[in-house]
Amino acid sequence: RLFLHYQQVMPKTKLMPDAANQATEEAVLVIDQIPELDESLLEGTQLVFGEHVKIVHAQSLGQAYQFILSEKFTLVISEVNLPDSTGFSTLECLKSWCGLTPILLYTGFD
Fold first, then answer.
1. Residue 66 near residue 27 (C-beta atoms within 8 A)
2. DSSP code at position 19
């Protein structure tokens, strides 16, 4: 549901190439403590943005920081509660590291 909502809100993002520009080198950073990306999260990301987008998975905020230092991401998707950060501190750290890169937060809590 999250990805479909994002697609409706931002249907013409840089991540969705037009027919003339199918090959891109764009990357999405997904931050979640699950050791292997949840199948539905990976499929949803690729469904919305296409298989041309590289998906990078970090299991903690610290690991995400290392990826952010070495690569530019077009979008960051993060669980709010991580092993080394929770709540708004997760968002504040990501905002300070990612500049104007869009950040999408979600939580598994009900």
1. no
2. G
The alpha carbon dihedral of 2, 27, 96, 57 has a sign of: positive
Degrees to nearest 5, angle at CA 15 with 61 and 108: 40
Query: Which residue has 């987008």 as its token pair?
Result: 53
Only one residue has tokens 């298989």, namely: 51
Q: What is the pLDDT of residues 20-38, one digit of tens each?
A: 444 447 899 999 887 666 6
The DSSP call for residue 12 is T
Got the DSSP string for 93-110?
HHHHHHTTS-EEEE-S--
Token pair, residue 86, equals 């929770």
Choose between 109 and 8: higher pLDDT.
109
Task: Name the β-bridge partners of 58.
Answer: 31
pLDDT tens profile 70-84: 999 999 999 998 999
Q: Write out the E strands in the chain.
A: 27-31, 54-58, 75-79, 103-106
pTM: 0.72
